[in-house]
Design goal:
Layout (H helix, E strand, L loop, with lengths): L1 H5 L13 H22 L3 H8 L3 H4 L1 H24 L1 H20 L4 H30 L3 H8 L2 H19 L3 H5 L1 H15 L13 H22 L7 H25 L15 H30 L3 H29 L1 H20 L7 H30 L4 H29 L3 H23 L10
Helix pairs in contact: 2-7, 2-9, 2-11, 5-6, 5-7, 5-18, 6-7, 6-11, 7-8, 9-15, 12-13, 12-18, 14-15, 14-17, 14-18, 14-19, 15-16, 15-17, 16-17, 16-19, 17-18, 18-19
C-alpha cells in the first residue's frame, strides 16, 4: 500500500476516476481469487496424496512451491508495472494464473502439479502490487480510504477458502479447486480490459536478477533436502541426494550473502538484516510466518490424520482462525497508539502459543472438532493482535525505509511458512504415527515462538504517532 502511494508522481491528476468502484471490484475479485486458491488447497493435501500416489512430504510442495514463487515475484511485480504498465501486467498475470489453474486441474503427477503451483505463485506475486497500484491511481485523492478497505479483501479469502475447499472436496474432487478459477479469471480479464485505465509509468529500477536466482537456489535446494529426509521415495540414493541438496543450499546461501554485500540494490539489503533490533524483528517475522502459514496449511491435514475429520470440518477450523484474526486485528489497531506495539505483540504471541499447545494435546472432555476449534480461535486471536503490532514495530525501527522493511517483512514471513510446511510435512511423512507427530510439531513451534517473544521483549516500545 505504501509503495503504491509513494510511487504516485507529484504531477498526477488526483481526481477520482468515474469507474473507480467498478475497477475496485475487478481487482478485488482477482485478489480474492488468489487468496481463495491459497487457502482452499490446504484442505486437499491428503486427497492429493492418495490420488497422485505421493506421500505428504511431496504433496506439501503444492503449498510451499506457490509460496516460493510468490516470494520471488514480489520484488518484480512493482518494477514490471513501472516498465510495461500496471494495467497490462495485471491482465497478463491474471490470464497466466487462469491458464495455470487449468493446467493444475489436469495434472496427472505430483511433479507436474508442483511446477504449475510454483508458476501460479509467481503470477499471484505479480498480481499483488499491481492491484494496489491500480486502486491508488483510480481513487486519486481518496486512495487512502480505498486502500485501507482493499487490505480486507485478502483476509476474506482466509475465511471462505477452507470452507470452499472442503465443499468442493466433499461434492466434487480436488480438480474442482483449480477449475473454479477458470471462468472467474476469464471474466476478470475481459472486464479489466474494458474498465481499467493505465496509470502513468515511472522509470523502472533495475531488478537484482542474480540475487533472486541465488535466493531461489537456496530455498528450493533446502526444501528438496528436507523433503527427501521425510519422503519414502529416493531409495538407496536418498542419503546422497540429501547431502548434495544440503551442500547446494549452503553454497547458494553463502553466494547470496556475498552477492548482497557488493550489489548496489540487492533484493534483500544487508543493512536491514541486523543491528538496531532488526535482527530480532526479522527472526520474529520468520517464526511468526512459520506459525501463520504453517499452522494454516497443516491444521486440516492434522485434523484428518489424527482425528479422521472430514475435509469440510477440517476446513472450518481455518475459518474459525480467520474470524478470530479479523476480530482481534481491529482491537490491535485501536490500541496501538495507546499501548505501543510491544504489549500487543507479547499478548498475541501468548495466545498463539496457547492455541498451538491446545491443538497439540488430546481433547479434554469434548469432541476433537470443538477442541481443535478452540485452539484455532486462540491462534487467530493472537495472530490478529500480534500482526499489526509487529508490522508497526519493524517500520518504527527504520522509519525512513518503510517500503523496504514492509517488503522484507512479507518475504521473511513467507520464508518461515515455507520452512515450517517443508519440515512438518517431512516429519509427518516419515512418522509411523503422523497424527501424534503433528502434535509434537505444533508443540515445538510453540516453544520457538516463546523464544521469539523473549527477543521481542527487548525491542523498544513506542506509543503515539511516529
Amino acid at each position: 500500500m505504501s509503495e503504491a502511494v509513494r510511487d504516485a508522481p507529484a504531477t498526477e491528476d488526483l481526481t477520482p476516476h468515474p469507474r473507480r468502484h467498478a475497477v475496485f471490484v475487478v481487482v478485488g475479485v482477482a485478489l480474492l481469487m488468489f487468496s481463495l486458491d491459497q487457502t482452499s488447497v490446504a484442505t486437499a493435501l491428503t486427497t492429493l496424496g492418495a490420488d497422485l500416489d505421493a506421500d505428504l512430504a511431496w504433496t506439501g510442495w503444492t503449498l510451499t512451491a506457490c509460496a516460493v514463487g510468490q516470494v520471488l515475484a514480489l520484488p518484480l511485480g512493482g518494477r514490471l508495472g513501472d516498465q510495461f504498465g500496471k494495467r497490462k501486467v495485471f491482465l497478463v498475470a491474471v490470464a497466466a494464473f487462469v491458464l495455470l489453474s487449468a493446467l493444475s486441474a489436469t495434472s496427472t503427477s505430483i511433479a507436474q502439479l508442483i511446477v504449475c503451483r510454483f508458476a501460479q505463485g509467481v503470477a499471484g506475486g505479480v498480481i499483488l502490487p499491481a492491484t494496489s497500484g491500480l486502486v491508488a491511481f483510480h481513487y486519486g485523492r481518496e486512495r487512502d480510504r480505498a486502500l485501507a478497505l482493499f487490505t480486507s479483501v485478502f483476509p476474506m479469502g482466509s475465511i471462505a477458502g477452507p470452507v470452499l475447499g472442503g465443499l468442493i472436496l466433499t461434492t466434487w474432487s480436488w480438480h474442482g479447486i483449480f477449475l473454479v478459477n477458470v471462468p472467474i479469471g476469464i471474466l476478470l480479464v475481459v472486464a479489466g480490459a474494458l474498465l481499467i485505465g493505465e496509470p502513468p509509468r515511472r522509470r523502472p529500477e533495475k531488478v537484482d536478477a542474480g540475487g533472486i536466482a541465488l535466493l531461489l537456489g537456496t530455498l528450493v535446494s533446502g526444501m528438496v533436502a528436507i523433503t527427501l529426509v521425510g519422503s519414502t521415495t529416493g531409495g538407496g540414493l536418498a542419503p546422497v541426494l540429501v547431502a548434495v541438496c544440503g551442500v547446494l543450499a549452503v553454497v547458494s546461501g553463502w553466494a547470496f550473502l556475498r552477492h548482497a554485500r557488493v550489489h548496489p540494490d540487492p533484493v534483500i539489503p544487508l543493512r536491514l538484516l541486523r543491528g538496531g533490533g532488526l535482527g530480532i524483528m526479522n527472526s520474529t517475522n520468520v517464526l511468526f510466518g512459520a506459525a501463520l502459514v504453517g499452522f494454516g496449511a497443516l491444521l486440516p491435514v492434522y485434523a484428518q490424520t489424527r482425528y479422521a475429520l472430514l475435509p469440510l470440518a477440517a476446513g472450518v477450523l481455518l475459518t474459525a482462525r480467520a474470524v478470530g484474526t479479523i476480530a482481534s486485528s481491529g482491537i490491535a489497531v485501536a490500541l496501538l497508539r495507546r499501548l505501543g506495539h510491544r504489549p500487543l505483540v507479547l499478548t498475541g504471541f501468548g495466545l498463539i502459543i496457547s492455541g498451538l499447545l491446545v491443538v497439540a494435546v488430546p481433547p479434554a472432555g469434548t469432541s476433537p472438532a470443538v477442541w481443535l476449534t478452540v485452539g484455532a480461535v486462540l491462534c487467530g486471536l493472537g495472530m490478529g493482535l500480534a500482526g499489526p503490532a509487529a508490522n508497526n514495530a519493524g517500520m518504527h525501527l527504520v522509519s525512513d525505509e518503510v517500503t523496504a522493511v514492509s517488503g522484507l517483512r512479507i518475504m521473511f514471513r513467507q520464508m518461515g511458512g515455507i520452512a515450517s510446511v517443508s519440515v512438518i510435512t517431512a516429519v509427518l511423512s516419515a512418522s509411523a504415527e503422523p497424527g501424534r507427530a503433528g502434535g509434537v510439531a505444533f508443540a515445538v513451534l510453540a516453544g520457538l515462538l516463546a523464544a521469539a517473544a523473549v527477543g521481542m521483549s527487548r525491542i523498544p516500545n513506542h506509543r503515539g504517532r511516529w
